Amino acid sequence: MEEASALFTIGPVEVSSVVVTSWIIIALLALLCWLATRNMKDVPGPLQCAAEMAVEGMENFIAGTLGKEKARKYFPIFGTFFVFIIVSNYSGLLPGAGQIAGFAVPTACLSVTAALAVIAFCTTHTLGVRERGLGHYLKSFLKPFALMLPLTLIEQLIRPLSLALRLFGNLYGEETVTHELYNIFPILLPLVMNVLSLLFCMIQAMVFTLLLSIYVAEATETEE
Description:
The chain has 224 residues and is mainly alpha-helical. The protein has one domain (6-219). Helix content is 72%, strand content 4%. It is built from 8 helices and 2 strands, in the order ββαααααααα. The chain has helices spanning 17-37, 46-66, 68-73, 75-91, 110-132, 134-139, 149-184, 189-219, and strands at 6-10, 13-16. A two-stranded antiparallel sheet has the order 1-2. A hairpin with a 2-residue loop joins strand 1 and strand 2.
């Protein structure tokens, strides 16, 4: 697998193939969302029906951790993470994707998964402060007793690192294995790997979103 290289520059900033691919995915998702919601009807058409089923399925998945109320309240956050990650994962399965100039799987790049993890980290603590107030939220780090504070802080810092490396490692490994198998057995095994990757890519998106929902549930938990 080749590393993402700079395609062009904007001033001093280099724009790599990973960035361009991410922009294309974001634009396509925005267009699809607009098409699915621009003319909502009581009797939905195929596109609106598919969108409603996807939203309901994701909301129920998140509700298993956060509960119905919080799942609906924070659904745009989790839905955005899940959809971007799964579409990015699946982009590597497109026929001839590896031969397209300027194309790179975003989630197989550590800088992208690190950015997603940092956004998830900031989102978790922002929601925690918003739900519980700054004072009460900071006090939660002292529980069950103050001596646990160093370990609690280390745990919080490890979480984004774990999210980034898990997603990157799994996707990069899957891409590498599939590429090598194609070189060795160009007919059958790559096809089998691509079929398995359909499930694998979905699982990785679900794991990232599930872990984020667990972190948010913990951060926003209020004392009764």
